[in-house]
Amino acid sequence: MKQTNLISVFAPPDLMVPEGHLLGWRVVGRDLRSYGGAYRWPWPGGVAETPDARPGGSCPTAYGDGLCLAKTARGAAVGGMRLECVLLVAYRPEHILGEDRDKLRVSRAIVLDLVDAQLKLRQGAGSGADLYGANLRGANLRGADLRGADLREADLYRADLGMADIRGAVCGGADLRGADLRGAVFGWDDLRGADSRGAVCGWDFRGADLT
């Protein structure tokens, strides 16, 4: 199954992106602060700017050296923040200062919306989603439709996956230790390669080959 880009998962269908701009996203804390709390993003409708930033790599090297956005769940997890509060922003291509496969750095961004990523996944938007390397540690994904999602290398330690549908999901390398899988719908092959030690699922995993 072709994986769905997370922009499509998070963005409301009626989201208006200004002409000449591209849509981007990043994870923030519940207080809109970035990793470490050094920078607080404005509320939707506001503009974030770093006029002194210079072209270079995909991540800022110091405070004021650009605004880091994610391209993938793996890129969003680099700062150690859980995939929960997601800012949707708009930026112009000429404001890109640097990028790689998972992240990009811009000098200016308009904040368009703030969304609850876990709520989106619980509401069914996660089917086929590209969640490779996502930080979903302790996440509330109860009842989520994650059929066919790419969960490789995802951190799902102590996540609530009760009643979730993960049939066909790719879980190789995922950390499912301590996860609540009670009532979840999946096959043995769906968990192949995942670390599920201590997972609560209502079945006895002892002796099972999940490698």
Strand-helix topology:
Blueprint: H1 6-10, E1 22-28, E2 47-49, E3 67-70, H2 73-76, E4 85-91, E5 96-99, E6 103-106, E7 108-116, H3 117-125
Antiparallel strand pairs: 1-4, 2-7, 3-6, 4-7, 5-6
Describe what is shown at a glance:
9% of the residues lie in helices and 18% in strands. The chain is mainly beta.
3D architecture notes:
With 211 residues, the chain is mainly beta. The protein is 9% helix and 18% strand. It contains 3 helices and 7 strands. The protein has helices at residues 6-10, 73-76, 117-125, and strands spanning 22-28, 47-49, 67-70, 85-91, 96-99, 103-106, 108-116. The model is unreliable at 203-211 (pLDDT under 50).
Q: What's the gyration radius in Å?
A: 18 Å
Q: What summary fits the major beta sheet?
A: 4 strands, antiparallel
Q: Calculate the terminal CA-CA distance, rounded to whole Å.
A: 22 Å
Oligomeric status: single chain
* Shape category: elongated
Counting DSSP E segments of at least 2 residues, the number of strands comes to: 7
Query: Helix share of residues?
Result: under 10%
Proportion of strand residues: 15-25%
Number of helices: 3
Estimate the mean pLDDT confidence. Answer: 89
One letter per element, helices H and strands E, the order comes to HEEEHEEEEH
User: Which stretches are low in confidence, meaning pLDDT under 50 for 5 or more residues running?
Assistant: 203-211
Going across the major beta sheet, what is the strand order? Answer: 1-4-7-2
Class by SSE composition: mainly beta
